[in-house]
Design a protein that fits this description.
Shape: globular
Keywords: Methyltransferase, Transferase
CATH topology: Rossmann fold
Mean pLDDT: 95
Number of domains: 1
Helix content: 25-40%
CATH superfamily: Vaccinia Virus protein VP39
CATH architecture: 3-Layer(aba) Sandwich
Organism: Neptunitalea lumnitzerae
Strand order of the largest sheet: 5-4-3-6-7-12-11
InterPro entries: Methyltransf_25, SAM-dependent_MTases_sf
Strand content: 25-35%
Oligomer: single chain
Radius of gyration: 18 Å
Protein name: SAM-dependent methyltransferase
CATH class: Alpha Beta
Largest sheet: 7 strands, mixed
Distance between the termini: 35 Å
GO molecular function: methyltransferase activity
Length: 236
């Protein structure tokens, strides 16, 4: 991986902002992702994110922290102990420069299960990092292993069924090359470079709830957004 997402974040933090990230998926055309959006303050965040941050408590793990905006709000405004993790070394460097006290460059699947957290955050469709539905169970089991008694997992995602065409029988036409309609190939472009396509996933609430229940987790929809998105809470 070229870590273009992280390079863009670090460029912005260092004052080298000249252009935005471009993203594209196997079911959507190229679109701009403005870098300033990744550095947004609490008041500029979507309602689902603000609700999740309001619910956060205790020792927090922010998975896929990106530029660290969620972690900084919880650390500085709510004065919570926050660990921010991301697979992007450049993003973690930016988090450190912004003042995140505990920022780690790692894959959450490698996190020591002796560490326990009261709140695990997966915002901006963080559960999508599973890539494929077949990996969701193992991912949830890992999160369950690092969840403290009485703890919570807060994640948002979207049901992207609306992006597919209806067929003549009243159903929906789904490409045959994917085992689940929420699976997409995701491409990032930045400053003339293109990241190799990687697996990403949007999971509808019903599917998430079934996977969570299978793993021994309770799953509740806390809030629905304005465009097929939702915030869910998972507990032991």
């Amino acid at each position: 991986m070229k870590d273009l997402f992280g390079k863009a974040i670090l460029d912005y933090q260092l004052g080298n902002y000249t252009e935005d990230i471009k993203t594209e998926t196997s079911i959507s055309e190229e679109d701009d992702l403005p870098l300033p959006y990744l550095f947004r303050s609490f008041k500029d965040m979507p309602k689902l994110e603000r609700k999740a941050l309001t619910l956060a408590k205790g020792k927090v793990l922010d998975i896929g922290c990106g530029a660290g905006s969620h972690a900084l709000y919880l650390q500085d405004t709510k004065e919570l102990e926050v660990t921010a993790v991301d697979i992007s070394p450049n993003a973690i460097r930016a988090c450190e420069l912004r003042g995140v006290k505990d920022a780690r460059n790692l894959d959450v699947m490698t996190l020591d299960s002796t560490e326990k957290y009261d709140t695990i955050l997966l915002l901006m469709n963080g559960a999508g990092m599973c890539g494929k539905l077949e990996k969701l169970g193992a991912f949830l089991e890992k999160l369950k292993s690092i969840l403290a008694p009485g703890g919570q997992i807060l994640l948002d995602s979207s049901d992207i069924i609306y992006m597919f065409d209806d067929d003549e029988d009243g159903g929906v036409w789904i490409p045959a090359d994917k085992s689940y309609y929420g699976e997409v190939d995701y491409i990032v472009k930045y400053k003339g470079e293109t990241e190799p396509a990687f697996d990403w996933m949007y999971v509808d609430f019903t599917t998430l709830k079934k996977a969570a229940n299978y793993c021994g987790l309770s799953c509740t929809c806390i809030m629905e957004g304005e465009h097929y998105d939702y915030l869910a809470k998972l507990t032991l």
